[in-house]
Amino acid sequence: MIYCNEPLATHITLAHGNGGHYMRQLIEQLFAKHLSNPILDIAADAAILPPISGVPLITVDGFTVEPLVFPGGDIGSLAVHGSVNDLAVAGAKARYLSLAAIIEEGMPVALLQQVIASLAATAKAAEVQVVCGDTKVVPRGQGSTLYLTTTAIGERVCEQPLGMARIQAGDAILVSGPVGDHGAAVMLAREQFGLSGELCSDAANVFPLCEAMYELPGIRFLRDPTRGGLATVMHEIQQATGLGIRLQQQAIPLNAQVQVLCEMLGYDPYYLACEGRVVAVVDQAQADAALARWQTLPQGKDAAIIGRMTQNAAEVVLQTELGGERLLPELEDEPLPRIC
Amino acid sequence: MIYCNEPLATHITLAHGNGGHYMRQLIEQLFAKHLSNPILDIAADAAILPPISGVPLITVDGFTVEPLVFPGGDIGSLAVHGSVNDLAVAGAKARYLSLAAIIEEGMPVALLQQVIASLAATAKAAEVQVVCGDTKVVPRGQGSTLYLTTTAIGERVCEQPLGMARIQAGDAILVSGPVGDHGAAVMLAREQFGLSGELCSDAANVFPLCEAMYELPGIRFLRDPTRGGLATVMHEIQQATGLGIRLQQQAIPLNAQVQVLCEMLGYDPYYLACEGRVVAVVDQAQADAALARWQTLPQGKDAAIIGRMTQNAAEVVLQTELGGERLLPELEDEPLPRIC
Fold first, then answer.
1. Mean pLDDT across the stretch A267-287?
2. Are the Cβ atoms of A87 and B46 closer than 8 angstroms?
3. Which of A10, A173, A250, B148 has the fewest CB atoms nearer than 10 Å to its CB?
4. Cα A28–B223–B81 angle (5° rounding)?
């Protein structure tokens, strides 16, 4: 720490990205302060990636959520959970993260401190280490305060193969909790509808939910329904397998506040993003066992069996509460708010 | 390929980022088309990272260069070279990349095709594979057409330790070619001074230059002088070692066009970024051998010994052509254009 006696500016300037004195000060006093660990070396061009036991998996995700802070999370916690979760549903436990920040000139330094502190705390809780980082500053009006990108590397811990190719007709479809909370919470926080409520993002580390399934006989596929929500995951499965999907509307868990908000604003909750839920496809014979595994976890207490894969029609059908049916079309150009 | 019969739109819309139909079409028809390889699976959440022989190294870099296309390169080629080079100066050969794109609504799809095709060709030439990717679309006015982030993972091939901690008084400082070409070329391309010329970015893969040094006895440290240029690398070394640095102005290679441009605009070329040069610090006894190694390579034909580490004064001194001296101060808030 070279610059420790010189206080940071209150707002980010272009000089914080030019490679010189102020950039080093920002990295040392803010990023390194929160993210410091034995692997991260802010003076080096690269870090040694510690050995991964077993098969290493890798994923990358960019984060552009607005607002940066929302009920239940912020861009810092989301940037950890997003990448950790992509590995979890692929059967792996995240170990290491790279982090790149694109900061807009004028960002309050206190806000940057807040989200990087949150990122650090979330990483610690998820048992991942940030091993390398980069910062860029873009001129005012060419960003949205802060964009983050994380690449996660982890080790496969699920010994069973997972993938859409393993899905069969008759398989059961489960979800680990109410859908759409994240999308609805961010929308509310962003759009300032004048509505107040206790609606909170579901953003969380889904590794425990996934781990509970890794040893379940007959587990076929796991996915976190983020952008495009539950309906979009259903369409990806339908298109990859050529099978049909039949969901029971009354079985799909939905928070009352999300339902009300969607009715008011004309959104379909099945297209709203989750950031802490998991969809599982399992052998029908194991559906109850899968549900029981989830329901014993705090994160899975509202888990439900919501439908099944069918042989006949290559479409996603929702059986409504009144006994009718409607198709859930593939998401096209509905303008949803930026939620991740 | 599911959507191959449906033509892509001419411009990026928010729907290309919403997780649904148009996003999949963009990924399949544009990103996967150029970047396809056996590891990249656009339908999966994560990819298996193939085994790395030897010690794995990791680095991350964000790219916000404006304009996206400049003489000698574009954001796509830069996004490969930037991360590949960070590994090269750390003694490693890059093998795998993750890629995240933050695209501004309204970006011409043809321009995105152009830079992703360039990225793919650059990756192929550098023998690296893109193993996972992510795209986000932000509303018009909240980006700068395109930002990219790459994380590179590679294997250490330099058996000697490299690092600032190994630098000693008396060591020689070399640079592999003229400095400031990239910064000057991007500035010219961006600012539309009405100047025309043949000024071209030096952006390139510096692995061959670095590899030439890996087996040199007495190699201490390698660094690519990107943001903040040669002077900033000198300051980082000076501050990390506590030693002084004495550079010979007439020894530092400089293209005449860069010199003229800097004189006209009042920039100091030693602070302008390079994207294809390497600074090496070597044992004084090996300086000539190091120079000879570089000068046999096309990329190193203008390499030079430009100065030395000194015991006495903890400052960076430039001996001018007329026999005088001036201090090269640490870069503070000079507003340089975004060059990487």
1. 96
2. yes
3. A10
4. 100
